[in-house]
Structures are given as structure tokens and as C-alpha cells.
# Entry
Amino acid sequence: MTEGALKKIPLDALHRELGARFGGFAGFDMPIQYPAGLKAEHLATRASAGLFDVSHMGQLRITPMDQQVQTLHRELEAALPIDFEAWPIGLQKYSVLLNDQGGIEDDLMLVNQGDHVQTIVNAGNREADHALLRQRCPGLRFDWIDASLIALQGPAAESVLAAMDPQAADMRFMQARTLMLDGAACFTTRSGYTGEDGYEISIPNADAPRIVRKLLADTRVQPVGLAARDTLRLEAGLPLHGNDILPSTTPIEAGLGFAIPKSRRTGGAKAGGFPGAATILQQLAQGPQRRLVGLGSDSNMPIRAHARIADAQGIEVGEVTSGTVSPSLGKPIMMAYVDAAALAPGNGLHCAQLFALVRDKRPQVSVLPLPFVEKRYKR
# Structure
């Protein structure tokens, strides 16, 4: 896609003023990093607070056409492996949009708002998700929300945001609330994709430049681009759609079984009844043939996505899906799909020697528990 064809995000001018280096991502011209550089931005988020613009993500409001909440619940429960029964109003949940084979078309964040659901979908899938959800839920209306989306992440995020609205401090992980930020009503969730405590804030476009400038005026906050967001989420063991999860991978293979409520599993009150349920329930019962695992290496060689993983005999048993040199740990870390037969029974953290195939090199890798860096959500 040529640069001229890329869509601009609402705060494009502000990011250019801050010296951001831009690049194309999912059809949008996005700030990739700032003059401080990836490592500095990454470590600043871990130590204090980073501000990310994720306005390329799709924000949707889902309402029942007949105004009946039962319609909202019935149609979304048929389209997704969710259950409204034990889902409090004002709580955000992670879910997956599955195909008929149980593969992940996208992963979503959904907030139960009582008479409607608000959701965030990945940038590269926004139109496809919209079309698939409309097809599966003919009794529901899906409206795009035209607003900027900002993530404020890191141990100082709470005190920074609470200085603008004290209610921010009362929120817990995955709770949603409308905060008043410098006079603007901003729908906010205590969540993010870095493993750090923080918030995702939907800001009316007209108010976004003023509010973001005010947040950045706090010396504890540094602008951070998508490059450091990627290294942060990898350290936190969070899969990225398009890399670690795909329409050909299931949530059970990807270690996302928590997204399937007990009530939708075999023996549950609402067992099955969602796309791909037969595959998902079978894998829950019997285990998948491959698993997404964390890998680490003591080599100083970066090991990137698509590197093959082999056992001591040279037999290929997996493939890296995400890889970087961890800014926090100072060594290569990866997520990779590895054949279950090559992993030990149980937790799979002890197995025969594994090696990455990187050009003519074979750096040894070890299976490590995820996350690589401890998550610090405020629960």
C-alpha cells in the first residue's frame, strides 16, 4: 500500500510535532517510534508511564434493533463463546470471533453496558469483523464510534489519570467507566496490551489534542509508538492476531482457553452453540496437537517470526510466531507453536533440547513459562 493510500489517525499532526517516525500498519499511517527510540520508550512504560495512540483499532457499539436486551444476549451468545449470565454490567471481557473450524478470525474486547455492548476490534480486521458479526447477528445494529483511542500504561498511569478524574483510582482491572477528563466525557477501561496497569481511553476527536497534550505535560508520561507496544506485549506473553493467533489456530492451541466460559463447555448450562464449538470442545477434552509456548535463548542472536524450531535430531517440531530481544531481560524471547509430542506431559516446561534454525545457525532455545515479565494489573 502506498503512503498516500494510508488513512490518517485524528492526532496525526500532534505525533508529527512530537517527532514520531511513521509507518503503515493495517492501512493506517501510525507513529512507530519517537526520537527517544524503542528501548527507551519500552523501559519508560515499565518504569513510569507510556502513552500510546491506538486509534486505528475499531470501536463498535452493538444494540438490539428491537430494543430487547434478550435479543442482544441471544444473538451475541450464538456468534461468540460468551455468557451474559455471570457478566456484570460495566465489566470488560476478552473473547474470540471463531470460524466454523474453531480458528480465530479475531480477538475482541467487549464491555457489557446493559442495553448495549461496546467492543474494540483489531485494526486489520475491522471491516471483516463488522461484516461477519452483521451476518451472524441480523437482529443487532453495529455502529462505528468515531473517536480517538489512547492507551496510558505503566505504574504511574493511575496517579496521572486520577489527577484529571479521581474516579480513575477506584477502577480495577477490566472495569469500565466514563471519566470526565478536562471537561470531556471519555469512555475508559482499566486495561491495555502491555502487561502493565493502565487504561484505554476513548476520547471525542475534538477534545483529543487538548487532553493528550495535558497527559503528556506530566513529566512521568512519555509518548510511545507501536514498535515498543509490540515488545511490551511480547514480554507479557500476549498474543497478537496476525502473528500468534490466526484463522488457522484455535484458542486452545494458543493458550486462550480462559476465553471459553465453563457454561459454554461440555456439561455447562449453555454448552456449545457457537461457531467452531465441536473443535473447541474436543481440544478441551483431549488436548491440542500443538501449543503456543514461550521460548528463551542465551544466545545474543535475535530470533524472529517464522524461524523453525527443531529437536536435537534436527526434526522440525515448531515455528516462531513472534520474537525479539527483550529490552527488560536483555536476551531473545519468542512465542512459538511447538508440537505437543515434543513437550513433556503436564505443564510442558521440560522437554528435549530445542533449537531455532536461523540461516546457518542453530541457537539453543528453552521453553519458558509465560509471561516473560510479570503482569502488574490492579485487580
About this structure: The radius of gyration is 21 Å. DSSP finds eight helices and 20 strands in the chain.
